[in-house]
Amino acid sequence: MVVISLEPQNGLMGSTSNNFLPPSLPAQLDWRDGQPYSRLFGDIYFSRDSGLEETRHVFLRHNRLQERWQALGDAAMFTVAETGFGTGLNFLCAWQLWREVAAPNARLHFVSTEKHPLTQEELAQTLALWPELAELAGHLLAQYRAPGPMLFNDGQVALTLLLGDARETLAQLPGKVDAWFLDGFAPAKNPELWQPDLFQTMAGLSAPGATFATYTCAGAVKRGLAAVGFQVEKVPGFGSKREMLRGALK
Q1: Using one digit for the tens of pLDDT, what is the confidence trace for 171-195?
Q2: CATH code for the domain in which residue 87 is found
Q3: Phi and psi at residue 186, in whole multiples of 5°?
C-alpha cells in the first residue's frame, strides 16, 4: 500500500500538543445554527439541506464508486484524492461505502489535503451532527492528533492528510489516482485553489480512466479540466444547486 508522510517543514506540522495543526493557519470557524462556517472564505462547509446526502450525491455517486468498488479484485488497491479535507465528512462517507461493498482484502488509500485544518475539538463538534457516522468518526478522531498516515480496518483503509496548499502537496504523491473529490470552498470564494496548475497536477497523477466530481459548475473549472484532457459534463447538482460537474480522463 502506498502511504505518504510529510516531514516537518516551515511549521506545517507541529507537536501533538497542538493536534499537529499549523498554528498560523487556523480554520477560523463560526457556528451558525450548529453548523461550521468559515470566516476566512465566507462560506459554508457543506449543504444546509444535508451535508451527508450532498457528499453521497456529488462525490460517491458521480465518481461511480459503488459499482467500481464492487468490481474490484480481492487484492486490488483504489486511490481517492481530495482537495479540501475540511470536516472529514467525505472521507467518512467513502469509508462507510467501502466497508459495505468492497472485497474483504481490497485496499483503499484516501489522500486529502488541507490548508486550514480544523482542530480535533472542532472536528468532533462537526461530526456529531451525523450519528450514523459515530463509530467511524470515533476512529478518525482517535488518530487525528498524530501526523502521518492513519490506518483503519486493520490497515485496509489508509488516510493520508497533507497539510498545506493543494497545488503543492498533491504534487508530492507517487502512484496514480483513480477518483478525485474536487472539494474546497467555491471558486468565487477561494480562487487561489481552482487554478490551471491544480488541473495539470491532477492530469499527471491520474490513472487511465480516472474520474472526478465536484459540486461546482463554474466555467473556469470546466474549461480548466477540459484543457488538460478530462471529459467534462454538467449533471444535476444537490439540493439548491442546479448543476455540478463530473467527468473522466480521456
Answers
A1: 888 789 999 999 988 899 999 899 9
A2: 3.40.50.150
A3: -55, 145
